[in-house]
Design brief:
It holds the Pfam family Band_7. With 378 residues, the chain is an alpha+beta fold. The chain has eight helices and eight strands; from the N terminus they run E-E-E-E-E-E-E-H-H-H-H-E-H-H-H-H. The chain has three domains: 4-46, no CATH class; 50-161, 2-Layer Sandwich (Tetrahydropterin Synthase, Chain A); 262-377, no CATH class. A three-stranded antiparallel sheet has the order 3-2-5, with helices on one face. Helix 5 (163-294) runs parallel beside helix 7 (330-355) and helix 6 packs antiparallel against helix 7 (330-355).
């Protein structure tokens, strides 16, 4: 809007050409705008922002020692209307002069205060120095409408005199000694810690070696058992196979023995018994022949029967040899069979002799061969 002006947040608008409040020669406006009548009013702006001023001053202490002091002052125009009016009347045309004038004010107070203190006090009580400077300059700064936000002493030195260095030497020596003691203690503690660590490492290594040895022994034992398990199992299996083979061989031998008995021994025994039977028959033949020779009445008949008796026994023996006969008691059984055959032959002989007593000698001569052949064949 034409003629309406608004100051910046960090500035004060000064309107001249109109009476201000109180004794102020102009009107002060902050934080809001105002209508400016053209040609009748004039507007100027004063900064309310923070400003900075640096101070570098050579100061002489109470002991006569020259010190180089550097400080920084942070200040601004006060927020109240009276401070704005005071600052505007002094710095409105050249606002940069605020920093110059502030630096000079603080330089004077700095020299004055340092001149009343010793170097030791200045070094040890730097904050006290800053507070005294602020208190001494506060009234003067208020008169020109300025307030100090902060004062920071940046550095204090004595140039090449070495006073501050000499002053710090005892403390430095004590500090160095303490540092050496602390370093020695630290080294000792480190050495002890290193020794303890080495002992722990040795103990751990020993324990680890024992555990590894035990583990290796267990592994070796397990491997040995595993290695033996194969041959032992194989040997056990081979032993079982040999036992089975032995048992089979025994069974085979028993079967072969039975086969030999059936195929060789029994036929041989039967043949031997047949021969014995024939021998017995021959003996009986001779006996009968002797008895027949002693008998005159039946000489012819007995001789004929005697002649037929070996043939009867022979036929019976041949039948025994060809028969599938199982003898349970071996040679004794064969003897019994042979004896039975001979006894049967003799019984047949006696029966024939008794039966032929009532017949004629001629009929007996014709019929006897046929009757004898029949039982022998059977």
């Amino acid at each position: 809007m034409l003629g309406y002006r608004v100051p910046a947040p960090d500035a004060a608008m000064l309107i001249s050409g109109a009476r201000g409040r109180g004794d102020a020669p102009f009107r002060v406006v902050t934080g809001h705008g105002a209508y400016i009548m053209p040609f009748f009013r004039k507007v100027r702006f004063l900064t309310l922002a923070m400003c900075e001023s640096e101070v570098a001053e050579k100061c002489v202490t109470q002991q006569g020692i020259t010190l180089n002091v550097r400080a920084v002052i942070a200040f601004k125009v006060g927020n109240d209307e009276q401070s704005i009016v005071s600052a505007a009347q002094r710095f409105l045309s050249d606002q940069n002069q605020m920093s110059v004038l502030t630096g000079r004010i603080f330089s004077g107070h700095l020299r004055s205060i340092i001149g009343s203190m010793t170097v030791e006090q200045i070094i040890r009580e730097r904050q006290k120095l800053a507070t005294e400077i602020l208190d001494g300059s506060k009234e003067e700064m208020a008169k020109i409408g300025l307030t100090v936000d902060a004062l920071q002493i940046q550095s204090i030195d004595d140039g090449d005199l070495g006073y501050i260095l000499a002053m710090s030497a005892p403390h430095n020596a004590a500090i160095q000694q303490q540092a050496q003691i602390a370093q020695a203690k630290a080294d000792q503690a480190a050495a002890e810690a290193e020794q303890e660590s080495q002992r722990n490492q040795a103990e751990f290594a020993r324990h680890t070696a024992i555990v590894q040895a035990q583990y290796k022994a267990e592994v070796d034992r397990a491997q040995a058992q595993a290695a033996q398990a194969g041959p032992l199992a194989q040997a056990q299996a081979q032993r079982e196979v040999l036992e089975m083979r032995t048992e089979l061989a025994q069974r085979a031998a028993e079967l072969r023995q039975q086969e030999l008995v059936a195929e060789v021994v029994r036929p041989a025994e039967a043949e031997a018994e047949r021969v014995r039977i024939l021998a017995v028959a021959d003996a009986e033949k001779m006996k009968i022949q002797a008895e027949a020779a002693a008998s005159h009445d039946r000489v012819a008949l007995d001789r004929m029967l005697i002649d037929q008796l070996p043939e009867i026994v022979k036929q019976a023996a041949q039948g025994l040899a060809g028969a599938n006969l199982t003898v349970l008691n071996g040679a004794s059984g064969l003897s019994e069979v042979a004896t039975g055959l001979v006894g049967q032959g003799l019984a047949i002989f006696d029966s024939l002799r008794g039966g032929l007593d009532g017949h004629r000698a001629d009929d007996l001569t014709e019929q006897q061969p046929a009757e004898l052949t029949g039982p022998a064949a059977n």
